[in-house]
Write the structure tokens for this entry.
Amino acid sequence: MREDKNKSPAFAHARGPLEPELISEETDDMSWVQHLRVPNDLSCWPGHFPQRAILPGVVQLSWAIALVQKRMQSCTPPTRIEALKFKIPVVPGQLLWLRVKRGSSEGRFSFEFGHAGCIHSTGRLVFARTREDDQ
């Protein structure tokens, strides 16, 4: 029997944004850092997971992609995601930093989420070069 997620009790209270709460930003020529708070009202909490809420990897990935797109003033999605690792769960209300570094090749960026000396997740994003990049 197919269950309708809209009627499931686990999704009955799904409300709130999927964006982090931005506390501050730092930038230099090669990297960007955002200091974040993970909101307690993200719409992904119900059902992920019922006994202990953790931030889905896809949400972490979307935050990293959004930071690159914001800084590069582009809406282009990455063409590849490499070396993606989720090491330590992220929970509601947690403080984090997201660091994105430009790679040695055009269109390549590494990212990591961390807090208090711990690395929660890491990965690399590869964006295709556009014709505008060649001009």
Observations:
- The chain has a mean pLDDT of 83.
- The first strand starts at residue 21 and ends at 27.
- The chain has one domain: 20-134.
- The radius of gyration is 17 Å.
